[in-house]
Amino acid sequence: MVNLQKTTPLDTAYLESLGFVWHTDSDETSYISDELVVLSETEAEAYYAATNELYDMYVEAAEYVIENNLFHEIGIPFNLIDAIKESWGNDVHWHLYGRFDLAGGIDAKPIKLLEFNADTPTALFETAIIQWAILKQNNLEESSQFNATYEALVDNFKRLVILEEDVSTFEERYDGWKFLFTSIRGNAEEENTVRLLQHMANEAGYETQFAYIDDVEFDPEEGISFQDESYELWFKLIPWEDIALEESDLAMLLTNIIKNQKAIVFNPAYTLLFQSKGLLKILWDLYPNHPLLLESSFEPLEGQMQVKKPVFGREGGSVSILDSDGDVVEHIEADYDNHKMLYQAYTELATDDIGDSYQAGVFYAYEACGLGFRKGGKILDNMSKFVGHVVK
Q1: pLDDT (tens digit, 9 = 90+) per residue, 267-293?
Q2: Residue 336 · residue 312 · CB < 8 Å
Q3: Phi-psi sector, 276: left (phi>0), alpha (psi -120 to 50), beta
Q4: 47/56 Cα distance (integer angstroms)
Q5: What pTM was computed for the model?
Q6: Which of 10, 110, 314, 369 counts the highest number of beta carbons within 10 A?
């Protein structure tokens, strides 16, 4: 059973003062849980170590895909392959941040990788800001979390210039490159997440600007510009697979901008390899029976419970749980059915006394840096709740 501690919730006026406006779900219930997951230092350290190990494995798996031209096998759209190769082959295309979704780690259950949200991970605001505020509100020791997400991202912004661990020389090496942060118009959650990242970049020492995507201009020779100003660095909270499938002209423009070294895009195009759940099959091929992995295949797994999920999808959409006979036990309808499907061995999530499931999310920015939890049903969907944690 998950060990939980009741808290006094943050009121909505305070949350909105922080810029956190997606605090209430469509059924009028609070998105932020009024409980914290309690875990030990040993459990927190295990999440840290597992995430760092998994990231190294992902780098090896991505290299394997590129070397063996397995883009089609893991569902990568053909019109981004050149951008992926260009970004992978040049160190300036630094991976800013991502989030690993993990089963286990609490309730004496082993840590198992479910997937890696490497391109446009959600729950950054909740992890970096909100759960820290919950500790403060409840007079708990603010350092009693595995949560240096904010500081880790500020440092990783500096590494976009330094390209090494030590960031102490950022100020003397920063040559005034301008950083444009972009969101789609009309989505408050995405916009405020982008503005949080912009704030972190400002703190790191960059000159920054915010723009909606429809106001940004792209040119293979001139690069990326907004209001007649060119930007060497561009952050987009728009998934690479959406750009490939829905904005093919933009995919081509960005590929040429990257090739012509007119701008650097974050997160880089190669994070689409990490984002593809098809890479879970490659990981299993390279590291069979690894203790952090679940068996994964593009064909149904015989004689065992498993999860069938699209290589690209969000919030549990088009995901099915199948029993050992291959019959559907649970399914969430969505628009991702046209993607290639992956079959992954089923693992039980830790649960509380009313049966809600808990999934860990560990952010990675140069190293594992922050933990948060989501709770919900057996398949976590867009009605799942964010749960903070405390380390005791």
Answers
A1: 999 999 999 999 999 999 999 999 999
A2: yes
A3: beta
A4: 15
A5: 0.97
A6: 369
